[in-house]
Each structure stands twice: as structure tokens, then as C-alpha cells.
């Protein structure tokens, strides 16, 4: 891995950047207005040695309360980093002022590891627009229902596999999310276990768990380090980056090549990739256009499946810890859908409590509590505080959704907080967490639909509970997070079984190899 600051290396290279950091400091001081408040740093290196290494979003929220400020700031080698801790500030800066807050900072580690292909991490510009356009056309709001049959079919496959292998619940969820993404991106089937494409994507994602976090990867602050020999102290990240680059390249190129062969043979299924190849097979769109198409398919497959899996795993965790929520959701499903079939998307509007469960999970345990940073394009002012040009802007979604002034007892899982006294959904949209402004997730409607249908279907026919030890005692479950680029719940023990004989009969009746 290369997600750590090497302290000896930091001090070794401090003199090289001292002059630049001091100059930046003096320029900032001359601007007159204060930066947002934050912890005091060390001269030259700033806060590089004192930043939290685990769950930084919790620390940033604590700073926000300590300094009584929606924005907090710190510096790393003279570079200003600002954390937005309120929904009001996020909407004002990232939406109302999106013209200057839509950029991403250039991160050297992404170039080195191959992850610069990722639309979500890419600086704002023509390359970003080209990739965004491809995904927006494919997954626009008015096309969302076109993918429902596929999502229903993959969901039924998961429910059947879950019955046959209940101990593999989280693996089945992961495969189901990956199979939808792979089908849409490439039109390819994946194996239920040990699929080479799925394993390649998982390994690639795991290699850069926290690469975009402030102060985590030294080469982001000191880009010249990439040119130094690997044998120097602290340069081990270069070897990890080289390994990751090879895996990311294979992750993008291998499925694309498979679809190219299928197109040539006339066996390719409809997908983002096959559509592009067929459309351009008699022309030369250019290397850059092909690169954009490959990247768009790759990010749909790799990043989309991972965030969906993390959210669905959090839903399982919430149901294990809150059996009363299951009972209420199942009662609602039974009254609306009945017991003879699984829920469909047509039922969604009539299942407000199930909808509230999904919303509450996104609030309670986010897949992206601290999304990748943005970079402001010009000096700006918010509530009398200077946001200098080039500052990196982080949105603390965890702080926004755990604000006790907005959500009472924020650590408690309570779907009712999204319902009115009449039992209908309220208008709170802060839970959506698909981004702000021009950086909103292009695949949000696809991800939202997958998460809902899997949640509703599992609730309809299964009961999830705590696992028991050999003596029949419940095994305790703790809420913990695996800190990474996407944050999954830490592993936890659980038990799942059909609700009753009627549910078991429904599961057995599900058709195999459903055509969609």
C-alpha cells in the first residue's frame, strides 16, 4: 500500500519546499481576510504530522464544534485545505457557486497508480466532460426504468443463491452489484465465485484506499518525489503504485478487448462498450475518444459496484442491530405487496417505511463520508472567511448527516426520522449523498434503484439476525468502518434465513435464467 505519510522522508525533504511554503504563507497573509479556523500547525510543514489517520471525518466535525465554524482549515506544506461541515455551506459553495468549485486537484499518486482514469477523481475540463457525457447519456433520469428488468433479474438470482448459501450473504450482494455493473458496462456475465474481472477490480480498488485524503500520501504534497529512486527512505510507495498501475490497466483493457472480440464475432450483447465500438467501427474517432470510452466503462464497473456494495452491506448491518425495523418493514411489504411475489419498482411509491430505511442507512453509515476533494478556481469569501484560490475543499458528509441539531441522536438508527406524523415521506434530501453541483454522481439513479430493490426483496422473504455461538448465545456486533476510498462496514457475524415456509416457497419458485 502507499497510503501513509513517511515521517523520516517528510523531514528529509522539508528544506526543499521551505521557500515555496513561506512565500505562499506571506501571499495569503496579504489577502487580509482570515482563513477558516483550525488547529495550529508547525512552521513550514503545517499540520502534516498531526492529521487524523483514521475516520478523519469525525475529527473534522469535532473541530467544527470546537471552533464554532461551518468551515475549518489546515495546511500541508503551505497548501490550504478547507473542510465543509454543514449542508448550508455545501449548497452555497458547491451548488450556488459551482462555476468555481467543480474542479478536482491534480493528485500525483493517481497518475502513478493508474487511477487518473476515474471520472470522480478527474480535474474539471474537456477530459472530464467527455467521460461524463457518455455516462450521462446512458444513465439519464428518463432512462432509469429501462434498466429495471435487468436489476430485477439479477436481484432474483441473488435471492436464489442466498437460499442455497446463506453464509455467503455479503459475497452474494457484492456479486449481484458487480454483475449489474458488468452487464451494463460490457454485456458480460460474471461467475458467482472467483470471477477474474471482479477480483481484478477489488484488488485495484484496495490498492488506493485513502490516496485522496489530506496528508496521507506524501507524493501528493511533494510531486517531485515520484522521480526519486525507489531505494531512498520512504519511497516504497513507488513499487506499490507500479503494481496498482498494472492491475488498473488490465481492469480497463481486458473486458474491453473481450467485447471487441464479441463484436467482431457478432455475439456482443447491448452495453455501453459494445454500443460505442459498433457506432465507431467504420470510422476513426481518435485515440482520445477511445480512451474516454474505455474510462467511462471502467469507472461504471469498478467504482459503481463498490459503492453500491458498501451501502447494501450497511443495510444488512442495520437490520442485524435493529430487528424492530425489520418487523415494521416486513409488515408494510406484506400489506402492499402480499406474500406471493417479490416487490417490484412499481411498488416503491407505496412503501414509505422501506424507503425511509434506505434513506436512514445512507445517513447513518455512508459509503463516502469524506468524498474526494475539490479545488477552488479563484479567491472566494464565505461568511467573512477567505477561501484562497487553489485551496482543496473537502465536504464532510458524515458531519452533515450526524449534526445533532438536525438529526436528534444521530448515532441511533431510526428510519422514522424521515417520515411525517401521517407516515408519509418528508422532504429531507440531505441523505441523498450523491454529490453536489456539477459533480453529482452520473449513475445515481442506477445505484439508488439497485439498493432499493435488493433491500425490499431481502426484507420480503428473509429474516436477518445476530449469529449465535456454539452455546446458543448471540454474538455481539459492533459498528465499525473499514477506512478506504469507499468505506465498508467492518466484518460482522450475522444469520439469515427464510422468514417462514411461505417465504421459502416463494424463493424456490423464482425462475432461473430469467430473460430481461
TrEMBL record:
Binding site for heme: 441
GO-annotated molecular function: heme binding; iron ion binding; monooxygenase activity; oxidoreductase activity, acting on paired donors, with incorporation or reduction of molecular oxygen
Classification via InterPro entries: Cyt_P450 (IPR001128), Cyt_P450_CS (IPR017972), Cyt_P450_E_grp-I (IPR002401), Cyt_P450_sf (IPR036396), Cytochrome_P450_fung (IPR050364)
Transmembrane segment boundaries: 6-25
Pfam families associated with the record: p450
Keywords noted in UniProt: Heme, Iron, Membrane, Metal-binding, Monooxygenase, Oxidoreductase, Transmembrane, Transmembrane helix
UniProt-listed Gene3D superfamilies: Cytochrome P450 (1.10.630.10)
Superkingdom to which the source organism belongs: Eukaryota
Pathway where it operates: Secondary metabolite biosynthesis
Cofactor: heme
Family that this chain belongs to: Belongs to the cytochrome P450 family.
Protein name as it appears in the record: Cytochrome P450
Organism: Hericium alpestre
